[in-house]
Amino acid sequence: MKKLYTSLPEHDRICVKLKGVTVMSNSRIVKYTCPYCKRGFDVEIWDTVTASSDPDLRDRCVSGDVFRLSCPHCKEEFMVQYPLVYIDEDHKFVLWLSEQEAPVSLKQTTKPLTERGYVLRRCASLKEFCEKIQILEDGVSDVMAELAKFDSFIEFTDNGKGTAEEITAVEYQRTENGIMKITVRCADKGMSFLIPLTMLEEEIAQNPELYEVGNDIFPLINSEWIMSLYQEADGTA
Ligand SMILES: [Zn+2]
């Protein structure tokens, strides 16, 4: 995947709009240089996506189509991850998609949004972004989802189904009737785990401080985050 978002302008102006109550999806046309043929063309990039008012755009975020570009000259197709603010007013969450921390102007929205019950998160990659939308739309805690993924990973390796090196992905699938489904994938096989939410709640209740997460800086809650918790707890960080 080509990531060339250094060529894309700053996103400060969108963040100010977030302080308002209703935000509209917002895109603009920028010049882009094809990484293959080096010729320029115009692309539409989205600064802000409001899922509740633009269901089609929400679908294009989850499928990754919003980030898929096609060069009109050489016809190459490729993905470009660029910074984007994703707002879901129905499920009350805001995601900042970027490898960089949220800009100051976005962090300033933390307090009013937290007061309104919003979950605020950063996603470093497109994969994390798509998964996070699904988790938060399902109305479950992403801390719980990361814990379930971690537990599934441990179970998979402890039972000799595959080594840590062989695992290519640990994915959140869905939560239905209080059961979370996680799939662990190796190159040639996969295995699904069905984990009751009550079990995860109990696990968290044993050490609530460890899993406590604030909205303060649009935190990154992913597999690296959960692994860092255990390393710190073991004193091996
Ligand atoms: Zn091209």
Care to describe what's here?
The protein is an alpha+beta fold. It has 2 domains: 5-137, no CATH class; 142-234, no CATH class. Helix content is 32%, strand content 27%. The chain contains 8 helices and 10 strands. It has helices at 12-17, 55-63, 104-107, 110-115, 126-137, 142-158, 197-205, 223-234, and strands at residues 26-33, 40-50, 68-70, 77-79, 84-88, 93-97, 119-123, 167-176, 179-186, 190-196. The strands form 3 sheets. Strands 1-2-5-6-7 form a 5-stranded mixed sheet. A 3-stranded antiparallel sheet has the order 8-9-10. It has a two-stranded antiparallel ribbon with strand order 3-4. The chain is globular. Residues 1-7 and 12-16 have low confidence and may be disordered. It binds zinc ion. Residues 34, 36-37, 39, 71, 73-74, 76 line the site of zinc ion.
Overall helicity: 25-40%
Write down the domain tally.
2
- Assembly classification: single chain
Shape: globular
Instruction: Give, in order, the helices and strands.
Output: HEEHEEEEHHEHHEEEHH
What's the mean pLDDT score? 88
Query: How much strand?
Result: 25-35%
Rg over alpha carbons: 19 Å
Give a count of the beta strands, DSSP E runs of length 2 or more.
10
How far apart are the termini? 31 Å
Q: What's the helix count?
A: 8
